[in-house]
Amino acid sequence: MDWQNLPEGGNIEDRRGGGLPGGGIAVGGVGGLIIALIALFFGIDPSAILGGGQSSAPAQTQPRTAPGQQDTSYQFVDRILASTNQVWSDIFRQAGRSYHDPTLVLYSGYTTSACGQASSAVGPFYCPLDQKVYLDTSFFNEMDRRLGGGGDFAYAYVIAHEVGHHVQDELGIADQVTRAQQRARSEAEANSLSVRLELQADCFAGVWGHHVSSLANLTQQDVREAVNTAAAIGDDTLQRQSQGYVVPDSFTHGTSQQRVNWFMTGFKSGNPNSCDTFGQNSGQL
Ligand SMILES: [Zn+2]
Questions:
Q1: Which of 55, 127, 281, 282 ranks highest by number of CB atoms within 10 Å?
Q2: Residue 252: helix, strand or coil by DSSP?
Q3: Is residue 285 part of a domain?
Q4: How far is the CA of 43 from the centre of ligand 1 (A)?
Q5: Half-sphere exposure (CA, 13 Å, Cβ side) for 151?
Q6: CA of 252 to the centre of ligand 1 (A)
Q7: How many domains is the chain built from?
Protein backbone atom coordinates (compact mmCIF):
# COMPACT_ATOMS: atom_id res chain seq x y z
CA MET A 1 0.00 0.00 0.00
CA ASP A 2 1.41 3.39 -0.98
CA TRP A 3 -0.25 5.33 1.82
CA GLN A 4 2.12 8.26 1.23
CA ASN A 5 0.08 8.96 -1.91
CA LEU A 6 -2.98 9.75 0.17
CA PRO A 7 -3.82 13.35 1.12
CA GLU A 8 -2.71 14.89 4.42
CA GLY A 9 -4.74 17.01 6.78
CA GLY A 10 -7.05 14.91 8.95
CA ASN A 11 -8.11 16.32 12.30
CA ILE A 12 -5.63 14.61 14.59
CA GLU A 13 -5.52 15.43 18.27
CA ASP A 14 -2.16 14.14 19.44
CA ARG A 15 -2.18 13.35 23.14
CA ARG A 16 0.83 11.06 23.14
CA GLY A 17 4.07 11.68 24.86
CA GLY A 18 5.04 12.77 28.33
CA GLY A 19 2.62 10.20 29.53
CA LEU A 20 2.32 7.11 31.51
CA PRO A 21 4.15 3.97 30.61
CA GLY A 22 2.79 0.49 30.30
CA GLY A 23 0.07 0.84 27.73
CA GLY A 24 -2.18 -1.25 29.95
CA ILE A 25 -0.63 -4.47 28.79
CA ALA A 26 1.39 -5.41 31.83
CA VAL A 27 -1.50 -4.76 34.19
CA GLY A 28 -3.89 -7.56 35.08
CA GLY A 29 -2.29 -10.15 32.87
CA VAL A 30 -3.06 -11.20 29.36
CA GLY A 31 -6.38 -12.80 30.30
CA GLY A 32 -7.90 -9.53 31.40
CA LEU A 33 -6.61 -7.82 28.32
CA ILE A 34 -8.17 -10.40 26.03
CA ILE A 35 -11.52 -10.11 27.76
CA ALA A 36 -11.43 -6.34 27.42
CA LEU A 37 -10.57 -6.67 23.77
CA ILE A 38 -13.40 -9.08 23.12
CA ALA A 39 -15.87 -6.94 24.96
CA LEU A 40 -14.97 -3.77 23.21
CA PHE A 41 -13.18 -4.62 20.06
CA PHE A 42 -13.98 -1.91 17.56
CA GLY A 43 -16.99 -1.12 19.73
CA ILE A 44 -19.07 1.98 19.39
CA ASP A 45 -19.92 2.63 22.99
CA PRO A 46 -17.27 1.86 25.55
CA SER A 47 -19.14 3.50 28.42
CA ALA A 48 -20.32 0.18 29.81
CA ILE A 49 -16.82 -0.82 30.72
CA LEU A 50 -15.03 2.46 30.89
CA GLY A 51 -17.39 3.97 33.41
CA GLY A 52 -19.04 7.34 33.27
CA GLY A 53 -15.92 9.39 32.96
CA GLN A 54 -14.91 9.27 36.61
CA SER A 55 -11.23 9.94 36.70
CA SER A 56 -9.45 7.52 38.94
CA ALA A 57 -6.18 8.27 37.20
CA PRO A 58 -4.71 11.41 35.74
CA ALA A 59 -5.65 11.95 32.13
CA GLN A 60 -3.36 13.08 29.40
CA THR A 61 -4.90 16.03 27.71
CA GLN A 62 -1.95 18.09 26.57
CA PRO A 63 -1.80 18.04 22.80
CA ARG A 64 1.63 17.53 21.39
CA THR A 65 1.90 19.99 18.59
CA ALA A 66 5.60 20.39 17.82
CA PRO A 67 5.93 19.84 14.07
CA GLY A 68 9.05 17.74 14.48
CA GLN A 69 7.04 15.24 16.48
CA GLN A 70 5.02 13.97 13.54
CA ASP A 71 6.44 10.50 13.36
CA THR A 72 5.50 7.81 10.88
CA SER A 73 2.53 6.59 12.93
CA TYR A 74 1.14 10.10 13.02
CA GLN A 75 1.65 10.62 9.29
CA PHE A 76 0.08 7.27 8.47
CA VAL A 77 -2.98 7.81 10.64
CA ASP A 78 -3.33 11.37 9.35
CA ARG A 79 -3.34 10.32 5.71
CA ILE A 80 -5.74 7.45 6.23
CA LEU A 81 -8.10 9.76 8.13
CA ALA A 82 -7.81 12.54 5.54
CA SER A 83 -8.59 10.06 2.78
CA THR A 84 -11.71 8.86 4.61
CA ASN A 85 -12.79 12.51 4.87
CA GLN A 86 -12.40 12.88 1.13
CA VAL A 87 -14.18 9.66 0.23
CA TRP A 88 -17.12 10.18 2.57
CA SER A 89 -17.48 13.88 1.75
CA ASP A 90 -17.78 12.95 -1.93
CA ILE A 91 -20.30 10.20 -1.25
CA PHE A 92 -22.38 12.44 1.01
CA ARG A 93 -22.26 15.32 -1.49
CA GLN A 94 -23.49 13.07 -4.27
CA ALA A 95 -26.41 12.16 -2.03
CA GLY A 96 -27.14 15.84 -1.36
CA ARG A 97 -25.88 15.76 2.20
CA SER A 98 -22.85 17.17 3.97
CA TYR A 99 -20.28 15.22 5.90
CA HIS A 100 -18.63 16.54 9.03
CA ASP A 101 -15.06 15.30 9.43
CA PRO A 102 -14.42 13.46 12.68
CA THR A 103 -11.46 14.08 14.98
CA LEU A 104 -9.07 11.27 15.78
CA VAL A 105 -7.36 11.24 19.17
CA LEU A 106 -3.97 9.56 19.21
CA TYR A 107 -2.98 8.62 22.72
CA SER A 108 -0.71 6.29 24.60
CA GLY A 109 -1.67 4.40 27.73
CA TYR A 110 -4.96 6.05 28.55
CA THR A 111 -6.92 9.22 28.11
CA THR A 112 -10.42 10.54 28.66
CA SER A 113 -13.29 10.66 26.19
CA ALA A 114 -16.87 11.92 26.45
CA CYS A 115 -17.77 8.22 26.72
CA GLY A 116 -15.53 7.73 29.74
CA GLN A 117 -11.94 6.72 30.27
CA ALA A 118 -10.14 5.26 27.31
CA SER A 119 -7.36 2.77 27.81
CA SER A 120 -5.19 1.02 25.29
CA ALA A 121 -6.52 -2.29 26.62
CA VAL A 122 -9.94 -1.69 25.07
CA GLY A 123 -8.69 -1.19 21.54
CA PRO A 124 -9.73 1.54 19.12
CA PHE A 125 -13.26 2.91 19.38
CA TYR A 126 -15.55 5.71 18.27
CA CYS A 127 -17.29 7.88 20.84
CA PRO A 128 -20.52 9.32 19.39
CA LEU A 129 -20.82 11.83 22.24
CA ASP A 130 -17.75 13.80 21.16
CA GLN A 131 -17.59 12.40 17.60
CA LYS A 132 -14.00 11.34 18.02
CA VAL A 133 -12.13 8.17 17.14
CA TYR A 134 -9.74 7.04 19.90
CA LEU A 135 -6.64 5.17 18.86
CA ASP A 136 -3.60 4.02 20.77
CA THR A 137 -1.02 3.23 18.11
CA SER A 138 0.41 0.46 20.29
CA PHE A 139 -2.68 -1.38 19.12
CA PHE A 140 -0.97 -1.86 15.77
CA ASN A 141 1.71 -3.89 17.56
CA GLU A 142 -1.03 -5.99 19.09
CA MET A 143 -2.35 -6.68 15.59
CA ASP A 144 1.11 -7.67 14.40
CA ARG A 145 1.51 -10.09 17.28
CA ARG A 146 -1.77 -11.91 17.42
CA LEU A 147 -4.66 -10.33 15.59
CA GLY A 148 -4.17 -11.48 12.04
CA GLY A 149 -0.63 -10.34 11.38
CA GLY A 150 -1.11 -6.62 10.78
CA GLY A 151 0.19 -4.79 7.74
CA ASP A 152 -0.48 -1.20 6.70
CA PHE A 153 -3.77 -1.85 4.95
CA ALA A 154 -4.92 -3.89 7.95
CA TYR A 155 -4.17 -0.89 10.20
CA ALA A 156 -6.00 1.31 7.75
CA TYR A 157 -9.01 -1.02 7.85
CA VAL A 158 -9.17 -0.58 11.64
CA ILE A 159 -9.21 3.21 11.28
CA ALA A 160 -11.72 3.08 8.43
CA HIS A 161 -13.97 0.81 10.52
CA GLU A 162 -14.05 3.38 13.34
CA VAL A 163 -14.71 6.13 10.82
CA GLY A 164 -17.53 3.87 9.59
CA HIS A 165 -19.14 4.32 13.01
CA HIS A 166 -18.86 8.07 12.55
CA VAL A 167 -20.60 7.74 9.17
CA GLN A 168 -23.37 5.79 10.93
CA ASP A 169 -23.60 8.60 13.45
CA GLU A 170 -23.83 11.20 10.68
CA LEU A 171 -26.59 9.20 8.99
CA GLY A 172 -28.57 8.76 12.21
CA ILE A 173 -28.19 4.99 12.04
CA ALA A 174 -26.33 4.78 15.34
CA ASP A 175 -29.19 6.55 17.18
CA GLN A 176 -31.80 4.33 15.59
CA VAL A 177 -29.91 1.25 16.67
CA THR A 178 -29.50 2.53 20.21
CA ARG A 179 -33.25 3.16 20.43
CA ALA A 180 -34.04 -0.26 18.98
CA GLN A 181 -31.69 -1.84 21.50
CA GLN A 182 -33.50 -0.10 24.34
CA ARG A 183 -36.74 -1.66 23.07
CA ALA A 184 -35.18 -5.09 22.58
CA ARG A 185 -36.89 -7.89 24.47
CA SER A 186 -33.73 -9.85 25.13
CA GLU A 187 -30.02 -9.40 25.30
CA ALA A 188 -29.66 -11.69 22.29
CA GLU A 189 -31.87 -9.35 20.26
CA ALA A 190 -29.86 -6.30 21.35
CA ASN A 191 -26.64 -8.13 20.51
CA SER A 192 -27.93 -8.99 17.07
CA LEU A 193 -28.49 -5.28 16.39
CA SER A 194 -24.95 -4.59 17.53
CA VAL A 195 -23.67 -7.24 15.11
CA ARG A 196 -25.52 -5.56 12.22
CA LEU A 197 -24.08 -2.18 13.18
CA GLU A 198 -20.54 -3.56 13.38
CA LEU A 199 -20.81 -5.45 10.10
CA GLN A 200 -22.01 -2.28 8.45
CA ALA A 201 -18.93 -0.44 9.77
CA ASP A 202 -16.82 -3.22 8.22
CA CYS A 203 -18.66 -2.75 4.94
CA PHE A 204 -18.15 1.03 5.11
CA ALA A 205 -14.43 0.40 5.67
CA GLY A 206 -14.49 -1.66 2.49
CA VAL A 207 -16.25 1.18 0.63
CA TRP A 208 -13.42 3.50 1.62
CA GLY A 209 -10.84 0.90 0.48
CA HIS A 210 -12.50 0.69 -2.91
CA HIS A 211 -12.19 4.44 -3.45
CA VAL A 212 -8.50 4.68 -2.51
CA SER A 213 -7.41 1.45 -4.18
CA SER A 214 -5.85 3.00 -7.27
CA LEU A 215 -4.37 6.06 -5.54
CA ALA A 216 -2.78 3.89 -2.85
CA ASN A 217 -1.84 1.12 -5.30
CA LEU A 218 -3.55 -1.55 -3.26
CA THR A 219 -2.38 -5.06 -4.04
CA GLN A 220 -3.88 -8.49 -3.47
CA GLN A 221 -1.54 -8.81 -0.52
CA ASP A 222 -2.96 -5.62 1.03
CA VAL A 223 -6.49 -6.94 0.70
CA ARG A 224 -5.39 -10.22 2.26
CA GLU A 225 -4.00 -8.30 5.24
CA ALA A 226 -7.34 -6.63 5.90
CA VAL A 227 -9.20 -9.90 5.40
CA ASN A 228 -6.84 -11.68 7.84
CA THR A 229 -7.55 -9.00 10.43
CA ALA A 230 -11.31 -9.13 9.88
CA ALA A 231 -11.15 -12.90 10.31
CA ALA A 232 -8.97 -12.68 13.42
CA ILE A 233 -11.44 -10.41 15.21
CA GLY A 234 -14.62 -12.35 14.50
CA ASP A 235 -16.58 -13.15 17.65
CA ASP A 236 -16.46 -16.90 17.03
CA THR A 237 -12.69 -16.90 16.57
CA LEU A 238 -12.07 -14.72 19.63
CA GLN A 239 -14.40 -16.79 21.80
CA ARG A 240 -12.88 -20.05 20.66
CA GLN A 241 -9.44 -18.71 21.55
CA SER A 242 -10.39 -17.30 24.92
CA GLN A 243 -12.90 -19.82 26.27
CA GLY A 244 -12.71 -22.78 23.89
CA TYR A 245 -16.35 -22.62 22.75
CA VAL A 246 -18.73 -20.27 20.97
CA VAL A 247 -21.94 -18.61 22.21
CA PRO A 248 -23.63 -17.07 19.14
CA ASP A 249 -26.27 -15.15 21.15
CA SER A 250 -23.47 -13.23 22.83
CA PHE A 251 -21.90 -12.08 19.58
CA THR A 252 -21.69 -8.31 19.21
CA HIS A 253 -19.49 -7.90 16.13
CA GLY A 254 -20.24 -10.90 13.93
CA THR A 255 -18.38 -14.05 12.97
CA SER A 256 -15.06 -14.05 11.17
CA GLN A 257 -16.81 -15.07 7.95
CA GLN A 258 -19.40 -12.30 8.27
CA ARG A 259 -16.78 -9.65 8.92
CA VAL A 260 -14.75 -10.75 5.91
CA ASN A 261 -17.85 -10.97 3.70
CA TRP A 262 -19.13 -7.51 4.58
CA PHE A 263 -15.74 -5.88 4.26
CA MET A 264 -15.39 -7.42 0.80
CA THR A 265 -18.95 -6.43 -0.15
CA GLY A 266 -18.09 -2.78 0.46
CA PHE A 267 -14.67 -3.12 -1.09
CA LYS A 268 -16.01 -4.58 -4.33
CA SER A 269 -18.97 -2.24 -4.73
CA GLY A 270 -17.58 1.04 -3.39
CA ASN A 271 -21.22 1.83 -2.71
CA PRO A 272 -22.56 2.29 0.84
CA ASN A 273 -26.00 1.20 -0.38
CA SER A 274 -24.54 -2.29 -0.66
CA CYS A 275 -24.00 -2.20 3.13
CA ASP A 276 -27.58 -2.89 4.17
CA THR A 277 -26.72 -5.21 7.01
CA PHE A 278 -30.08 -4.37 8.58
CA GLY A 279 -32.08 -5.51 5.55
CA GLN A 280 -34.61 -8.29 5.95
CA ASN A 281 -32.87 -10.41 3.37
CA SER A 282 -29.31 -9.63 4.23
CA GLY A 283 -29.20 -12.53 6.68
CA GLN A 284 -26.06 -10.68 7.80
CA LEU A 285 -24.37 -12.65 4.97
ZN1 LIG B 1 -16.98 -1.24 15.58
A1: 127
A2: coil
A3: no
A4: 4
A5: 20
A6: 9
A7: 1
